[in-house]
């Protein structure tokens, strides 16, 4: 039988309709998450709010449940932990987990723990994606998914934004981050200072003990790599292997992401220029991008459009934030990335329809719990940003937006800073596989290299055609399966990552194949045939 | 009385064990069937699965480079009969042709539908999975392009997928394997009938043909003891066959790559114990039935023919139960009733206790009735001398 491969390009992640503020999700978040934001293909399954997917009656804290995108029964449960570990008798919160039991169900002493990104994404909501990706591993090992505190089912810290009904019409510049953040904070029934990574790590350990797993194989994606590295630092004795994919090294504040985004933009333009078809179709891509960006930086363009979803007439205020944000998010997915050159070129001709389409993908679709996101970033990344780093971040559009946003929101969130040694490189001899995607718009390969600094038993593979999250875009999931089986990085061969899985760029709104020149065009004979085909489809 | 019966059972077993060939013939089924089943399942799983790297014939590949690249990233590539793999071995090219139409790129460029022809024999089981995989991959590619075409026109692709079908499959990993084990239990129950058959014929019609039956009856033991001893001896053999089948199944099923089908088939110790418990009344019924028929037959040969005919009945019952084509009344009958209880156990459902008890009682009643009839008939000269 064949494993995994065929599903790779299927929609990875169900769109989660957690209502976040588009502005917050677009600019305010770093979204270093990975399995986010899928292209809803026909085969896809969109997620609803996840709460009703698990049915955990009171008093019974483990039972079978159905998760979105998985038709089979899996087991779901939760443990109860104090929100503040220093006050064991204080407020209690539930940490939910799901176990996708091994197919050969004889060995339950080990589990494969997959940690989601964001920060703020639910691992359980991504169960279908993880299950597909790690099908081989699941043959003989349980897959353990835990909703980190503040996400998914584990006392989610969500900001249900109000006063933001029309994401298309709003001008993000009018948005008052401080007020909105304060409103969100007031709304949350939680001590937000308790939702950092270190507390969450202890929750993970508590779940592991509760389930009785002796050893874990840990996989972290994106922000999840930070959790995996903290696992290496604090509980090395329970780890068999660690895989970090789309790495945020401990030494790095994620707020430095601006450079990674610029790098990904540059790579896209270079890719298109060196591609024969794309280069010929869009010779002025770089100039087009710069001119639209410059134009929107001065003033947004207001127009009347049809709402992408409802079809109703609405006003579109095309701002720089929407334009750049839509492109940035499109860079995460190799298949959507293929549409960017066409979208930029159309925007340069004042047609913002493709950008509108890309933007609509990003509206309430990242499934990120903004409150938890802020707790992590403000406690662990904001305060360690040095003046020099801040200056560097201000050099890029995205870096500047992020610094400004978090400057205001972190002042309100008031997270205590983590200790200075939080940023120390991880030193470990536990077998560790490090994966980076060359085209990654969030965590570039250089970050993976940085994480390698004191890992003595690690290997770093860079997948040339992958963006963020290598395991679901290449053969890397097979590599991880091999790694988990052998427990050693020595024998791993990353050759298969070099297979060209890239997609052709869209040359117009319809095709990725070379557009035939007029003299090659078929004779009119073709017309009636088309009519028949079309007619048939109306049956 | 008990002592006498035990002595006679020992006599019967010693008698049976002397004829090694007959013992082997009795037990070959118990050993052979699980192995055969395993071999069959292995072969089936191997044949049905699509290879990781699927080689098919792709024509006009130049018309759709992106599609070809996509298929190749899914492990589907073009190969012809002369192609070889890395080691120089000839490639296994499936007999599936994918023809990309001449106007593929032109149609695509206009936003129209571009034609691809998939030519394959869908009745060929070895290809079915590969064909479905190809269809699925093409469907995915098409859906993805469709979504991106909508995005390029400023429309949210979700509008063209109005229904979100969410499947909640109530099967458990155990019950998925239960489908397979259901068939397996049929062969196990049948082992009870087959294993004792040779002995049953030998000790009744055979004994008569060797003229030792009359001799036996002339001894100062009651006919009842003789009949009971024979039934017990055959039962012991039948149970031995069942135990052997179970042990060999437990060992050999572990080697079948069930996980490729997404579940495991595990013969647990609990299942073995339950099977032995439930199997005992069936074995006794089988023994009495076989002895009865053999006594009724005039010769050894005739006994063999009759038994073959009679054994179709439990086989039909068992089959009906395992393929779930049974009307509800079957769950109250012997063999099928017990088997349905076993299948329920395997699938992790509640065991239908009432049905199980009732069908077991019926089984025992039949056993007693047959034994009683046999005892009566052994008093008739017609039977004793096969007249």
Describe this protein's structure:
The complex is a heterodimer of chains A (539) and B (387). With 539 residues, chain A is α/β, with parallel strands linked by helices. Chain A has a domain at 5-255 and 420-498: Rossmann fold, CATH 3.40.50.1820. Helices cover 37% and strands 14% of the residues of chain A. Chain A has helices spanning 22-28, 127-133, 135-140, 177-187, 197-211, 223-234, 257-274, 276-281, 285-298, 320-330, 334-337, 340-348, 353-362, 370-382, 387-394, 397-413, 445-451, 476-486, 526-536, and strands spanning 62-65, 74-82, 92-100, 110-115, 142-146, 215-221, 239-245, 301-306, 313-318, 427-428, 432-437, 454-455, 458-463. Chain A has a 9-stranded mixed beta sheet with strand order 1-2-3-5-4-6-7-11-13, with helices on both faces. Chain A has a two-stranded antiparallel ribbon with strand order 8-9. A two-stranded parallel ribbon of chain A has the order 10-12. In chain A, a hairpin with an 8-residue loop joins strand 1 and strand 2 (74-82). In chain A, helix 4 crosses helix 16 (397-413), helix 9 (285-298) packs across helix 12 (340-348) and helix 15 (387-394) crosses helix 16. The longest helix of chain A has 18 residues, at 257-274. Chain A is globular and about 65 Å long. Mean pLDDT of chain A is 82; it is low at 1-59 and 520-539. Chain B has 387 residues and is mainly alpha-helical. Chain B folds into 2 domains: 2-45 and 171-384, no CATH class; 49-160, no CATH class. Chain B has helices at 2-18, 20-48, 65-73, 104-109, 125-152, 173-195, 197-209, 213-217, 223-253, 269-296, 300-310, 312-322, 336-346, 353-377, 381-384; strands at residues 54-59, 76-78, 93-100, 116-119. A 4-stranded mixed beta sheet of chain B has the order 2-1-3-4. Chain B is elongated. The relative contact order of chain B is 0.12. The mean pLDDT of chain B is 85. The chains are: A alpha/beta (539), B mainly alpha (387). The interface between A and B is large, with 72 and 70 residues.
């Amino acid at each position: 039988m064949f494993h995994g491969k065929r599903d790779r390009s299927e929609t990875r992640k169900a769109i989660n309709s957690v209502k976040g503020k588009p502005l917050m999700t677009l600019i305010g978040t770093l979204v270093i998450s990975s399995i986010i934001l899928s292209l809803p293909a026909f085969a896809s399954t969109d997620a609803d709010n996840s709460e009703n997917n698990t049915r955990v009656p009171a008093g019974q804290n483990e039972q079978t449940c159905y998760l979105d995108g998985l038709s089979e029964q899996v087991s779901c449960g939760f443990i109860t932990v104090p929100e503040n570990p220093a006050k064991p008798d204080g407020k209690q919160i539930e940490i939910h987990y799901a176990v996708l039991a091994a197919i050969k169900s004889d060995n339950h002493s080990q589990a494969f723990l997959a940690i989601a990104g964001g920060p703020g994404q639910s691992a359980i909501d991504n169960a279908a994606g993880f299950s597909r990706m790690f099908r081989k591993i699941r043959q003989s090992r349980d897959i353990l998914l835990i909703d980190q505190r503040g996400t998914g089912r584990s006392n989610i810290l969500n900001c249900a934004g109000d006063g933001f009904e029309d994401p298309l019409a709003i001008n993000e510049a009018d948005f008052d981050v401080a007020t909105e953040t304060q409103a969100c904070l007031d709304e949350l029934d939680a001590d937000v200072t308790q939702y950092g990574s270190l507390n969450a790590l202890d929750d993970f350990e508590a779940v592991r003990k509760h389930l009785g797993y002796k050893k874990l194989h840990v996989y972290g994606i994106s922000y999840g790599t930070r959790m995996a590295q903290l696992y290496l630092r604090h509980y090395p004795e329970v780890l068999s292997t660690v895989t970090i994919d789309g790495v945020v090294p401990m030494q790095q504040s994620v707020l430095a992401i601006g450079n990674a985004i610029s790098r990904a933009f540059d790579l896209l333009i270079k890719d298109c220029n060196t591609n024969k078809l794309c280069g010929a179709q869009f010779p002025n891509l770089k100039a087009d991008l710069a001119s639209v960006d410059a134009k929107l930086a001065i003033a947004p363009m207001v127009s009347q459009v049809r709402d992408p979803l409802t079809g109703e007439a609405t006003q579109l205020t095309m701002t720089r934030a929407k334009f750049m944000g839509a492109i940035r998010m499109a860079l995460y997915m190799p298949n959507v990335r293929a549409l960017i050159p066409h979208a930029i070129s159309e925007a340069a001709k004042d047609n913002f329809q493709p950008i509108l389409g890309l933007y609509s993908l990003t509206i309430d679709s990242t499934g990120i719990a903004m409150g938890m996101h802020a707790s992590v970033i403000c406690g662990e990344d904001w305060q360690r940003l040095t003046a020099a780093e801040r200056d560097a971040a201000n050099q890029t559009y995205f870096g500047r937006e992020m610094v400004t946003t978090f400057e205001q929101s972190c002042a309100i969130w008031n997270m205590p800073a983590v200790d200075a040694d939080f940023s120390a490189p991880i030193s470990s001899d536990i077998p560790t596989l490090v994966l980076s995607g060359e085209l990654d718009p969030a965590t570039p390969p250089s970050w993976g290299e940085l994480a390698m600094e004191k890992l003595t038993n690690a290997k770093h593979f860079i997948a040339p055609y992958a963006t963020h999250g290598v395991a679901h875009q290449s053969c890397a999931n097979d590599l991880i399966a091999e790694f988990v089986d052998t427990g050693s990085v020595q024998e791993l061969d990353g050759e298969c990552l070099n297979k060209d899985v890239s997609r052709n760029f869209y040359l117009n709104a319809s095709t990725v194949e070379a557009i035939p020149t007029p003299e090659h065009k078929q004779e009119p004979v073709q017309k009636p045939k088309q009519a028949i085909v079309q007619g048939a489809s109306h049956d | 009385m008990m002592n006498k019966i035990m002595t006679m059972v020992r006599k019967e077993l010693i008698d049976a064990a002397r004829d090694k060939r007959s013992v082997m013939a009795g037990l070959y089924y118990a050993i052979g069937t699980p192995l055969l089943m395993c071999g069959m399942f292995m072969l089936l799983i191997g044949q049905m699965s699509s290879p990781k790297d699927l080689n098919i014939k792709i024509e006009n590949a130049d018309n759709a480079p992106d599609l070809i690249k996509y298929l190749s990233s899914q492990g589907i590539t073009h190969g012809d009969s002369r192609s070889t793999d890395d080691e120089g071995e000839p490639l296994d090219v499936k007999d599936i042709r994918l023809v990309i139409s001449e106007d593929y790129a032109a149609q695509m460029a206009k936003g129209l539908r571009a034609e691809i022809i998939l030519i394959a024999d869908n009745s060929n089981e070895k290809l079915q999975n590969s064909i479905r995989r190809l269809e699925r991959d093409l469907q995915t590619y098409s859906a993805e392009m469709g979504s991106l075409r909508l995005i390029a026109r400023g429309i949210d692709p979700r509008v063209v997928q109005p229904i979100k079908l969410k499947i909640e499959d109530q099967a458990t990993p155990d019950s998925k394997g239960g489908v397979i084990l259901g068939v397996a239990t049929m062969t196990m129950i049948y082992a009870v009938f087959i294993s004792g058959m040779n002995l049953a014929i030998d000790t009744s019609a055979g004994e008569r043909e060797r003229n030792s039956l009359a001799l036996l009856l002339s001894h100062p033991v009651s006919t009842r003891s003789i009949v009971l001893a024979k039934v017990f001896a055959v039962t012991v053999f039948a149970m031995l066959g069942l135990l052997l089948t179970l042990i060999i199944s437990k060992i050999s099923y572990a080697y079948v790559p069930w996980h490729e089908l997404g579940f495991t088939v595990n013969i647990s110790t609990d299942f073995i114990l339950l099977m032995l418990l439930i199997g005992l009344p069936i074995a006794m019924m089988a023994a009495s039935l076989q002895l009865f028929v053999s006594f009724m037959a005039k010769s050894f040969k005739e006994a063999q023919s009759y038994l073959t005919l009679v054994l179709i009945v439990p086989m039909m019952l068992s089959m009906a139960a395992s393929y779930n084509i049974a009307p509800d009344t079957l769950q109250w009958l012997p063999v099928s009733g017990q088997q349905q209880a076993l299948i329920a156990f395997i699938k992790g459902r509640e065991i239908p206790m009432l049905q199980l008890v009732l069908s077991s009682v019926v089984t025992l009643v039949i056993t007693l009735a047959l034994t009683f009839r046999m005892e009566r008939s052994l008093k008739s000269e017609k039977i004793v001398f096969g007249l």
